[in-house]
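User: Sequence recovery, please. Input:
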């Protein structure tokens, strides 16, 4: 069956469930997350990756170049490497120096082009590039992990899992700029048949190549250390090189994105919910191979979380708590395997039980169910190509707009905006941080522009005035009297074709937790190891467990790294 067939034959979860912050607190990566789908395509379509230049000194300062043949398209990744003092390293967007700055470009790297990139890439936002440059990025070494791993390899040994801890990476990325910024290629200029035509694929490829660079760098430094010490360095063994990922962190700047792009929010949710409904809508005999696979993945998820016991997760649930809940699900599933005699909706029952346990248990179990269906992979990519917002219709009768409010925005009417706690925060663009921020409304300077993240408040105000206006009159007539409702009226129209187009939360509320939305977005990218550092930002890891370039070059991607586990010994 196609994804659309499954959409119409199985009942999807309701928007009030999917779009709540409580549910997003348990978001987990799936087989359709952007990182996995990129590498799955790379292996299946025969992409080849080559390290074509590695001009680095003993401290790994210099230039590295990788070329990618992606279905006949030549892509080049060029990185300029240096070493900062630890005090100079920061994950904040306002930094002006990094250990690694890099670009993903279309075509070959000529001397003239490299000279231009060398001037502009290291300064990032202060530079400008040509329109065949697709992505700009930068990253910093983890002084603790990078130096430790290079010391281990230089002495002829592999790292110790305990020393690396629950977030395995060598460098941390801090930005992936694209889509026209600083002169970069516009996404709309990428042809539909281009391997990077799927949204976020170019960012994922760039991040994966950064990860590849990090391991080449650490082995290069290890060889230099060994040569100086008269020892013999060893490379990372295969298990370690797959386990190490790319560090990342995100803050408040991501949250307004899903407000400004309801089409993307809807697509990302459907990418989860349709395959989930397909799996939950079936009856399974106790000896069905999918049941055995679910049991296997529940056990693997338990092992994965056991290794993450030291990860700081508050205000999300502690990993030990989630493990106990997964073990309950596994026990129930094994009971079905041992005693059932007829096919039954066992996965639906377990999913319902998981939802009653916690958002984290439900999210993990949902990802396991989604894992069962490989036949949706190519169709899933098409869901990510969205058409953008529909044009505003000022001729729509007010009665129709009121109907849309009642049908799609009843959730917003539950907020009492006469209560100051419901409007405690406002969102704005920070000149100092160069990205969206939120602050207490009582501190808002006069004249400060407020982002339109207060959807619930604006919709409530629209509904109040619309209720007093003749229903047969047009929205244009209404806006002539109430011009301040232009945004809200357009928003209600814009989202009417989306099942999952609106976060059902009040972003200016005193109780709103930005981490929930951030976790959902990062899980959609394919990240894991969610470790909040405050109520506003969290650290994560990308590509832990993923194949290396050598694997892709041989067409190998076992596509089974949903719950990566640490190496147990040399391979």
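Assistant: Recovered sequence (571 residues):
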């Amino acid at each position: 069956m196609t994804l659309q067939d499954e959409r119409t034959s199985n009942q999807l979860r309701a928007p009030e469930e999917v779009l709540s912050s409580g549910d997003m607190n348990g978001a987990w990566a799936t087989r359709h997350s952007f990182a996995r789908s990129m590498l799955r395509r790379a292996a299946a379509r025969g992409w080849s990756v080559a390290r074509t230049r590695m001009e680095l000194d003993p401290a790994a300062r210099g230039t590295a170049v990788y070329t990618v043949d992606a279905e006949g398209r030549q892509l080049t990744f060029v990185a300029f490497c240096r070493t900062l003092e630890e005090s100079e390293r920061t994950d904040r967007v306002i930094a002006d120096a990094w250990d690694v700055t890099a670009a993903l470009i279309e075509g070959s790297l000529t001397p003239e082009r490299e000279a231009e990139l060398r001037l502009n890439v290291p300064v990032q936002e202060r530079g400008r590039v040509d329109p065949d440059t697709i992505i700009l990025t930068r990253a910093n070494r983890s002084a603790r992990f990078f130096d430790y791993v290079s010391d281990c390899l230089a002495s002829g040994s592999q790292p110790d899992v305990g020393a690396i801890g629950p977030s395995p990476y060598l460098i941390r990325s801090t930005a992936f700029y694209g889509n026209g910024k600083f002169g970069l290629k516009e996404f709309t200029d990428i042809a539909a048949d281009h391997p990077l035509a799927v949204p976020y694929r170019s960012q994922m490829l760039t991040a994966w190549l950064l990860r590849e660079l990090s391991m080449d760098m650490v082995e290069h430094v290890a060889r230099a250390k060994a040569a100086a010490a008269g020892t013999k360095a060893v490379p990372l063994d295969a298990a370690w090189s797959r386990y190490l990922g790319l560090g990342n962190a995100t803050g408040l700047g991501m949250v307004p994105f899903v407000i400004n792009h309801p089409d993307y929010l809807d697509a990302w949710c459907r990418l989860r919910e349709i395959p989930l409904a397909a799996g939950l809508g079936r009856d399974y005999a106790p000896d069905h191979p999918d049941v055995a696979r679910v049991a296997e993945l529940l056990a693997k998820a338990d092992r994965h979380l056991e290794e993450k016991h030291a990860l700081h997760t508050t205000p999300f649930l502690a990993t030990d708590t989630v493990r106990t809940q997964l073990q309950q699900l596994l026990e129930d599933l094994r009971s079905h395997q041992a005693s059932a005699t007829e096919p039954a909706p066992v996965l639906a029952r377990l999913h319902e039980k998981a939802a009653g346990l916690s958002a984290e248990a439900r999210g993990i179990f949902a990802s396991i169910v989604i894992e069962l269906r490989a036949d949706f992979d190519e169709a899933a990519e098409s869901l990510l190509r969205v058409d953008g917002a529909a044009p505003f219709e000022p001729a729509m009768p007010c009665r129709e707009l009121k109907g849309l409010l009642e049908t799609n925005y009843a959730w917003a009417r539950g907020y009492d905006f006469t209560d100051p706690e419901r409007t405690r925060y406002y969102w704005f663009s920070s000149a100092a941080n160069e990205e969206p921020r939120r602050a207490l409304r009582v501190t808002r300077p006069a004249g400060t522009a407020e982002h339109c993240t207060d959807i619930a408040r604006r919709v409530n105000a629209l509904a109040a005035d619309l209720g007093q206006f003749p229903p047969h009159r047009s929205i244009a007539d209404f806006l002539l009297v109430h011009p301040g409702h232009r945004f809200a009226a357009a928003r209600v129209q814009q989202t009417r074709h989306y099942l999952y187009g609106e976060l059902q939360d009040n972003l200016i509320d005193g109780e709103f937790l930005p981490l929930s939305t951030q976790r959902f977005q990062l899980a959609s990218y394919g990240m894991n190891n969610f470790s909040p550092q405050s109520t506003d930002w969290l650290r994560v890891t990308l590509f832990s467990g993923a194949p290396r370039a050598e694997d892709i070059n041989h067409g190998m991607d076992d596509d089974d790294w949903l719950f990566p586990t640490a190496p147990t010994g040399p391979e």
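The longest helix spans residues 201-229.
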